[in-house]
Write a structure and sequence with these properties.
The chain has 11 helices and no strands. With about 325 residues, it is mostly helical. The N terminus is likely disordered.
Length: about 325
């Protein structure tokens, strides 16, 4: 064997190790960041202080940690070098991260850097791996490399979509409680801004994500933004149809001067009816969805239990010599 051939296993091992190492480090940084945020929340709750905790409060320290980390720094530079911060794709990615609850300024750059790194790494590992495989024609090599590159490029998008969907589901779970609390606060004579602040403080104990979004809404109003603009920003960040309907209701009520308490009461009743109808729809679809597993798994077992002894008896009577 030539020295070049002897170095091929070393190159493949080094490439695979590099990809796995970067992946493990990225997961470790993500878990450590979430653990740090949870520890801060527990400390604040134990101290009895009812303060607002946002991800931005530790943005400076966490950003410094990201810069000191060579892997995250490399991904950030790769993302900024690949996509301009003024491009439409970068702005769209920033909006998607806000909807996923990731508000750090360097997340879009890390996202784009990870996309390009995965696309290049998977293709490179494939080309190094085919050296030990049987001869493969050029068209198969091209298709496989394109498939792996696209898979690596879109894997971060799939992860972001799953994270956004989970976050939306958690927000939807807290909307009924939020509406009930908001109706109670407004009917007791509180203003809408004060009611939103009070609901945000109370609902964070059971629905943290929704409480954080309401806190951001309250801070935007305190910072000088109009109530209409702050409400529209809330609907844009959450991107849920029910929240958009609620925001439209509050804006129209504010413009025409109608009773906020009565409007919220009507919307709460209609929302509750809508949820009840959706539950009935899911229950009505359940028998149809059960048909496939029933036919594939339950019926064959049932037939074996019922017809098995009869088949054995017929075999012994008629076919056995």
């Amino acid at each position: 064997m030539t020295p070049a051939i002897l170095n091929i296993p070393l190159l493949i091992s080094a490439s695979v190790f590099l990809v796995l190492f970067l992946f493990v480090v990225a997961i470790y940084q993500y878990i450590r960041q979430n653990t740090r945020e949870r520890e801060l929340i527990v400390k604040v709750r134990e101290s009895g202080k009812n303060r607002i905790i946002f991800n931005e409060e530790n943005s400076s320290s966490e950003t410094e940690g990201a810069v000191k980390n060579p892997v995250l720094n490399f991904l950030r530079l790769l993302g900024k070098g690949s996509v301009s911060e003024l491009s439409a794709d970068y702005t769209k990615t920033r909006t998607r991260f806000l909807r996923a609850g990731l508000r750090k300024a360097n997340f879009p750059a890390l996202f784009w850097g990870t996309k390009f790194l995965l696309a290049f790494s998977l293709s490179a590992c494939f080309f190094l791996g085919i050296i030990f495989l049987k001869p493969v024609d050029t068209s198969t090599k091209l298709l496989a490399s394109i498939f792996l590159a696209l898979s690596g490029y879109f894997l971060p998008d799939i992860w972001l979509h799953i994270k956004t969907t989970i976050r939306k589901d958690k927000i939807v779970e807290g909307i009924p409680d939020m509406l009930d609390l908001l109706v109670v606060c407004v009917e007791t004579g509180m203003g809408l801004d004060s009611a939103i602040y009070r609901v945000a403080q109370e609902i964070r104990l059971s629905h943290k994500i929704l409480g954080d979004e309401l806190n951001i809404l309250n801070l935007e109003i305190r910072a000088g933004n109009s109530r209409e603009k702050a409400l529209r920003n809330l609907a844009e960040r959450i991107d849920i149809e029910d929240v958009r309907s609620l925001v439209t209701l509050l804006i129209q009520t504010n413009k025409f001067g109608t009773s906020i308490a009565q409007s919220l009461r009507v919307y709460s009743d209609s929302f509750r009816t809508k949820r009840y109808q959706k539950a009935e729809e899911i229950a009505a679809k359940l028998p149809v969805k059960l048909m496939l597993p029933l036919i594939l798994f339950i019926f064959p077992s049932l037939f074996v239990v019922i017809l098995g002894p009869a088949a054995i008896r017929l075999y012994r009577v008629f076919l056995r010599p």
